[in-house]
Design brief:
The chain contains eleven helices and no strands. The protein is globular. The mean pLDDT is 79.
Length: 300
């Protein structure tokens, strides 16, 4: 018991770290679009490609590359991760282009716990624990409040298409969560995300190359691109995959809800965007949902 409890606590800590780092990605991506003249799809492609390159270089420098196992199972897992990351990024940024950053982020991440809960219910042939269901409901209520506090209204076909893309992104992330909940023997989280990002970035090259070549790569744009590649991508996903090893998939999906929460807080602090009373209530519910899920994880 003394060994299991710290392991579960470390898993929750890793998942929280991932969620917080992901929350900084929205601001970084917006900066690249506004200041670097990068199309959102190019931001997604550069994020995965640069993140994969940086992570692989780290593996080489630290000598960890030699420890990466070989074999068909490893190759299949890395290709699956790459495809899912590419699908997630393309669907998410397509939703952003059709609606808004806040609506796309909240719909995408908010749908993930629901998809994961449904999938695990079907897989395990039993309902999730009452505390887990309560956490999902609380989290969805918080996201609704956060969404209703955001400015801007999109209607008609753009809204329908944007929501469809956001739900596709959420489904892709849910599958990514479930797949990596069962690690391949000997394959650590960092090599998984390193080569997964690299594969996903290569897949997005045809969609992002033109915009990337015509971008304004000033020093500050390069610095933000590297930050986006390292912190909210390579480090965050490696922490998320590590947490998945001992955390329940629904708990992991709920931890991802920190992304829109942190993004909203940073936008309020750095960009002057106001959440209002409704938005702050939604933020409080998200924190409460994560707290319920964390207690359930440690008691499981």
């Amino acid at each position: 018991m003394s060994v299991v409890a710290p392991a579960k606590e470390r898993a929750v800590g890793a998942l929280i770290t991932a969620g917080v780092l992901w929350g900084t990605g929205g601001l970084a991506g917006s900066f690249l679009t506004a200041q670097g003249n990068l199309h959102p799809l190019a931001v997604a492609g550069c994020r995965l490609l640069f993140g994969g390159v940086c992570a692989v270089l780290y593996l080489v420098v630290t000598g960890q590359l030699r420890a990466v196992p070989r074999g068909r199972a490893v190759l299949v897992r890395l290709l699956v991760v790459g495809v899912l990351l590419a699908v997630f990024q393309v669907s998410y940024f397509a939703s952003v282009a059709l609606t808004s950053v806040s609506l796309a982020t909240m719909t995408t991440i908010g749908s993930v716990p629901v998809f994961v809960a449904v999938a695990t219910t079907v897989r395990d042939r039993r309902l999730p624990a009452p505390a887990t269901l309560a956490a999902v409901v609380i989290a969805l209520a918080g996201l609704v409040l956060l969404t209703s506090s955001s400015d801007g209204a999109v209607t008609g076909a753009r809204l329908f298409g944007g929501l469809a893309c956001a739900l596709a992104a959420g489904a892709g992330f849910a599958v990514l969560t479930l797949v990596n909940g069962k690690p391949v023997a000997g394959l650590e989280p960092l090599p998984t995300i390193a080569f997964g990002c690299l594969a996903g970035g290569v897949l997005l090259v045809p969609l992002s190359l033109g915009s990337a070549l015509s971008a304004d790569w000033r020093p500050e744009v390069v610095a933000v691109a590297l930050f986006l590649a390292v912190c909210p991508t390579a480090v965050a996903y490696a922490a998320y995959f590590r947490g998945l090893r001992t955390a329940h998939p629904v708990v992991a999906a709920l931890a991802a809800l920190l992304e829109p929460l942190v993004a909203a807080l940073l936008a309020a602090l750095l960009l002057g965007e106001r959440l209002g009373v409704t938005g702050w209530c939604g933020a409080a519910l998200l924190v409460g949902a994560l707290g319920v899920a964390s207690v359930r994880q440690q008691r499981a």
